């Protein structure tokens, strides 16, 4: 009987199958990829099932919508409360950009008229107290001062002349009084003599002629006494007239002294000096110019400056004098200076304007008013130029 031949797998590559694999019952080589594909398909199916389970399972927000809503509301309330607490207690500052440098600048003008002969300053120059700004021609005022001094000397001479006359008159009064005394003595003697001769004539011891002669002598002495007394009165009245002349001369002296003092003041006014430290701006006076009294020749900006900050009326609730402030200068952003609140104006800025608003008529629209607050700076920077009108941003700590 003939043995069957071994089965030969005729493949694409002509390889034989391993008989040992058939003996162990292992699957052939062409079946292995099929099992791997099956496992891959099972894994993908498992992942698709997991994804499907995730999609079908509800989220946390959907499972607890009420708690989520309450939590959201609580967070909003907490944020609002935190902001209110920050604004009321943790933010104790009030700031405004409606602020500027302020000063009491004024015009420089001579008090007397004349030609300007010297201007030893220039524009924007810093000057100290007593420094010469303008020089007016002094010659006319020197002449006026000399005239005043001459009038003083003339009045003094008049007074001395009257004093001499008064002294002479007083001497005449003394002479007149002595004459009165002498005449009084002669009168007394004449009275006694007349009485004696009258008595003798009565008794017949004397003559009537002697009695009449003594009586006549008595009358003459009485007339002499009256004349001497009148001379004394006239001399005394002359003293009164001389005293009046002296008073007039003294008044003339006072007038001359006043005129001389005014002339001396006018002479001093020819030199215009700085009354305080500051800067000269808008210089218009020039050498050779005829300046009238009161004519503006320049503007003077004192070194004493401060900050005027126009805060809203809702910002000054807790603002008080003495509170500290930090100040930023727009022109010099790198500079920060400090100061303090000096005062708060008792009224809005519009209330003191030239034409204040009249809200009693027409339609009224409420507008938040601005209140000027004066802030005094501790120390201005000395190496930069700062003047009135420059913008400032002050921040005041109000709590």
Automatic annotation (TrEMBL):
The keyword Cell inner membrane does not apply. The keyword Coiled coil applies. The chain crosses the membrane at residues 66-86. Residues 136-267 form the YbhG-like alpha-helical hairpin domain. Residues 1-58 are annotated as: Disordered. Keywords: Coiled coil, Membrane, Transmembrane, Transmembrane helix. One of its GO terms (biological process) is transmembrane transport. Residues 307-392 form the p-hydroxybenzoic acid efflux pump subunit AaeA-like beta-barrel domain. Residues 152-179, 218-266 form a coiled coil. InterPro entries: AaeA-lik-b-barrel, HH_YbhG-like, MFP. Residues 1-21 have a biased composition (Basic and acidic residues). Residues 46-57 have a biased composition (Acidic residues). This is HlyD family secretion protein. It comes from Methylobacterium planeticum. The lineage of its organism: Bacteria, Pseudomonadati, Pseudomonadota, Alphaproteobacteria, Hyphomicrobiales.
């Amino acid at each position: 009987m003939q043995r069957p031949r071994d089965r030969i797998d005729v493949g694409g590559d002509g390889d034989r199958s391993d008989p040992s694999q058939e003996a162990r019952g292992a699957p052939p080589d062409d079946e292995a990829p099929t099992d791997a594909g099956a496992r891959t398909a099972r894994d993908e199916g498992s992942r698709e099932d997991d994804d499907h389970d995730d999609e079908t399972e509800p989220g946390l927000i959907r499972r607890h919508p009420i708690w989520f809503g309450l939590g959201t509301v609580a967070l909003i309330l907490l944020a609002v409360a935190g902001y209110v607490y920050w604004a009321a207690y943790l933010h104790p500052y009030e700031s405004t950009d409606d602020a500027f440098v302020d000063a009491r600048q004024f015009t420089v003008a001579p008090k007397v008229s004349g030609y300007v002969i010297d201007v030893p300053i220039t524009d924007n120059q810093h000057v100290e107290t007593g420094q010469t700004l303008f020089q007016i021609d002094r010659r006319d005022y020197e002449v006026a001062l000399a005239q005043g001094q001459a009038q003083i000397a003339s009045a003094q001479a008049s007074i001395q002349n009257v004093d001499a006359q008064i002294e002479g008159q007083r001497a005449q009064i003394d002479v007149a009084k002595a004459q009165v005394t002498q005449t009084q003595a002669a009168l007394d003697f004449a009275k006694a003599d007349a009485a004696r001769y009258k008595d003798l004539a009565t008794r017949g011891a004397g003559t009537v002629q002697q009695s009449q002669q003594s009586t006549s002598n008595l009358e003459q002495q009485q007339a002499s006494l009256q004349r001497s007394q009148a001379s004394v009165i006239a001399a005394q009245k002359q003293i009164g007239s001389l005293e009046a002349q002296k008073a007039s001369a003294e008044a003339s002296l006072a007038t001359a002294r006043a005129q001389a003092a005014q002339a001396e003041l006018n002479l001093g006014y020819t030199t215009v000096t700085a009354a305080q430290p500051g800067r000269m701006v808008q210089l218009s006076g020039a050498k050779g110019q005829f300046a009238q009294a009161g004519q503006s020749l320049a503007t003077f900006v004192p070194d004493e400056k401060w900050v005027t900050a126009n805060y809203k009326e809702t910002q000054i609730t807790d603002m008080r004098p003495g509170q500290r402030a930090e100040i930023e200068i727009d022109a010099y952003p790198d500079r920060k200076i400090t100061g303090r609140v000096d005062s708060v104006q008792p009224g809005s800025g519009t209330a003191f304007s030239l034409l204040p608003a009249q809200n009693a008529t027409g339609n009224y629209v409420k507008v938040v008013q601005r209140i000027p607050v004066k802030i005094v700076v501790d120390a201005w920077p000395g190496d930069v130029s700062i003047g009135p009108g420059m913008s400032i941003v002050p921040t005041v700590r109000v709590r």
